[in-house]
Amino acid sequence: MELVDAVTAGFIERAGRAPDGVWRAPGRVNLIGEHTDYNDGFVLPVAIDRSVVVAAARRDDEGLRCWSTRDGRGDEVAPVRRPGEIGPGRSTGWAAYAEGVAWTLRAQGVAVAGADILVHGDLPVGAGLSSSAALEAAVGLALTDLAESAVDGPALDRADLARVGQRAENEVVGMPCGIMDQMAVLLGRAGHAVFLDTRTLESELVPFDPAALGLTLLVIDTRVKHALVGSPYAERRRACERAAAALGVPALRDATLADLEAARADGRLDEVTFRRARHVVTENDRVLEAVAALRAGNLEPVGKALAGSHRSLRDDYEVSCAELDVAVEAAVAAGAAAARMTGGGFGGSALALVPLAAAEAAARGVSEAFAAAGFAAPSIFAVVVSDGAERVA
Predict the structure, then answer these.
(1) Contact (Cβ atoms closer than 8 angstroms) between residue 198 and residue 179
(2) How far apart are CA 207 and CA 106, in angstroms?
(3) Which pLDDT belongs to residue 272?
(4) Which is the catalytic residue, given 20, 37, 40, 181?
């Protein structure tokens, strides 16, 4: 595997010794279920064949030293950091994701050894494909595997590791994300989507093999970099919390459209908060519709659900942007069976399910539409539904 060879050679060059192992975690494309995870709702992501890989080796002390080559700008290096030097308010930049995982594991009683870690991969950063969750999952697997080989102790299951990644991102990085991304990159399986109830963390692998349906799954990276930390993402989450409080429910998962209409009519919800909540409530319904359609092998309802999701994200949740809207409209005009923005929004990527024979025409149509709009050229590539995080060497 090219990435494994590259990260191994890079680690030897930097650390002066061979790594104890190499771990891979994929990115994810969320088919449908956007901004529902932090509302205890339903999501339907897939793991993809673009990945973050980490090579790691134990240190004799408790320090953590990280290098990253992911952005193609040469090395990004974080200094050796002791346990007391990492954590909320102390870890910054890209290394906060890795340091946050180490801090969270220690906070939860896992005997994490010191480690040297090199981060590499072919998953674009800032494209809305969960590069941060992939980094957290790969580092989490590496640190727990290294700990288990050093001391006897119970292994964390995949849901535990997902919670570790989420807590690291919430408390150390400062991003109030839900748990979908971490679960998707840890639970994914080739040929399947992960139907996840984010309240209970119950999951089901639903058959989803685009090639078997005569389709290819295209990712359209708008190259509009989205930085969700400190972005309007947090405001959207606060709006959902306000709506749930006004309705007297634990989360918007428990609300209905009728509840929202009544709360708007009697003044408990202002118009903006109503629209934010309406997106979440209707998006949960669309996820359930898409899952039922995939179980039945019927793609038509999936296309309608994805189209409705994009409209709702654009108009009610207001997290799309001009580039994402052009990508979706151009892909559908060029023959895509379904398309929508994917990820947190404010830039990032769109997805398109396109008949195999029309994939080149769809990519060309999107590129031409971007040029006509005066946008920078997008990056368009096919992805394969793949397995979740694993040790690969």
Answers:
(1) yes
(2) 37
(3) 97
(4) 181
Asked whether residue 106 carries a pLDDT value surpassing 80, the answer given is yes
Share of the chain above pLDDT 90, in %: 82
Helices marked H in 227-299? 233-247, 257-265, 271-296
Active site residue 181: yes
Measured N-to-C along each axis, helices 95-107 and 158-167 cross at an angle, to the nearest 10 degrees, of 120
User: Residue 222 in contact with residue 331, Cβ under 8 Å?
Assistant: no
- In one-letter notation, the amino acid at residue 227 is A
What is this structure's pTM?
Answer: 0.92
Q: How far apart are CA 86 and CA 99, in angstroms?
A: 6
Report the percentage of the chain scoring pLDDT > 70. 95
Region at 353 (left for phi over 0; alpha for psi -120 to 50; beta for the rest)? beta
Q: What is the pLDDT of residues 241-256, one digit of tens each?
A: 999 999 999 999 999 9
